[in-house]
Each structure stands twice: as structure tokens, then as C-alpha cells.
């Protein structure tokens, strides 16, 4: 009997079948955006608005107790200048002249961490998008040149 147990333990078990549910996320997002699907009733929205009405008064009272002025809560406006989109400038910023072919993927990730449109303020997103597109083209060209050089 023990021999049967050892043999059964050595045999690989069949993986359990996974259930999959086809789901079109884009279609659902489109329906939600169109307004044809309501996520909550009007009652829930009204309760939310009523709950939020007293928050400003409570905040002002708390700030008054602590002695914080109203203007101190506002952060100073940042002056942000759009970054250059010239390919030569971006190539220098990437460091493509000194980069090894193995480093190109890392350069792309580092550049994206600093310049991706999702990581910059809204008013700079178009500029960031152009910079990312140019950087991707430059890195892809550098990879192609490295691959061609390696083939020769």
C-alpha cells in the first residue's frame, strides 16, 4: 500500500482547469463614459453632496483653532518651462553617444520615469508626449544600428 502512495505522489497532478470569462474592458469603459450605465443612484450622489457640505466649515474651524491662515494652505504656484523637443537635445539627454546596446532599454526606462506624459502636470502632457515619441524613435534607431553592426 505504501508503494502505491509513493507512486501516486511521484505522478504529476493535472493542473486544474482555469475558468475564463470573456470581458471587454474598453466596451464597459465606453458605456460608463457615455452615461448609459449608472453606477449609483441619485440618492447616493445627494448623500455624498450633503456629507461634503459641512467639511469646508469644519476645516476652517480647525485651521482657526491651530492658527493657520487661509492662504497658507495653498501651495505656491510652480513655474514650469516646457522641455526641448529637438532630437539632438534629447539624444544628448539620453546619452546615446556613449551608450552600449545593452544599456538602451535602461535608458528608455529612466527617460520615461522623468518624462512620461502620465508623470507630468496636465499642461505639459503634449510636450512630454512629443519628447517620449522622439526618444523612442532615437532609441529604436540606435538598437537597429547596433544590431546591424553586430551582424557585420
List keywords for this structure.
single chain, 152 residues, mainly alpha, 2 domains
Structural class by sheet pairing and helices: mainly alpha
| Oligomeric category | single chain
User: What is the 3D form?
Assistant: flat
* Number of extended strands: 0
Task: Please describe what this structure looks like.
This protein is mostly helical and 152 residues long. The chain has six helices and no strands. Helix 4 crosses helix 6 (125-151) and helix 5 runs antiparallel to helix 6 (125-151). The longest helix is centred in the C-terminal third of the chain and has 27 residues, at 125-151. The protein is flat. 6% of the residues are buried. The model has no long low-confidence stretch (mean pLDDT 78).
What's this, in brief?
With 152 residues, the chain is mainly α. It is built from six helices and no strands.
Write the layout of secondary structure elements.
Layout: H1 2-10, H2 25-34, H3 42-66, H4 87-94, H5 104-115, H6 125-151
Helix pairs in contact: 4-6, 5-6
